[in-house]
Amino acid sequence: MPAANDLRKGQVIKFNGEPHLVMETQHRTPGNLRAFVQVKMRNLRYGKSLEQRFNSPDPIEVLPTDRRTLEFSYADRDTYSFMDPETFETFEIGAVMIGDAKNYLVANGKADVLFINDVPVTIDIPSSVVLKVVESAEGIKGDTASNVQKPAKTETGLVVAVPLFIKEGELIKVSTADGSYLGRA
Q1: Share of residues in the chain with pLDDT > 70 (%)
Q2: Rounded to whole angstroms, how far apart are CA atoms 126 and 108?
Q3: Which member of 1, 91, 105, 171 has the lowest number of beta carbons within 10 Å of its beta carbon?
Q4: pTM of this prediction?
């Protein structure tokens, strides 16, 4: 088993019987005390973040992980179906694990899924996605004040503030970090 000194960002460890994703590590040696490792980690089951101190030589159980790029197929109530484009194997992921990413999932869209023992535990979506505008009010002619925006509803149900010239049926690029309009696609 590796020691706490060997922990790196992105690894998944077993802490208190639960899988935790290591988000940040800092090795510290204060004055006349023993060295320790300060680890910021997120519980993969509940999503809560915590900070924990480990003594440098403490053994830590690192879980074997596998990251795969999957394609989103469809949503059925509280279940989202993904397919591995290489093996054509399908995986169903619950709405709780998907969270706010549901607003950015379109058919055949790609997502990175982290697996532990062939069980999906987290999903990461790209930093921006292309969505189709399905509902948008018409811009008022002559309203040319700078940075005037209107709400537009996308195919996933997400409402985005867009410039007046965007019309229904257009493809727009949206940031997945904050749901903001980035431009036309």
Answers
A1: 96
A2: 13
A3: 1
A4: 0.73
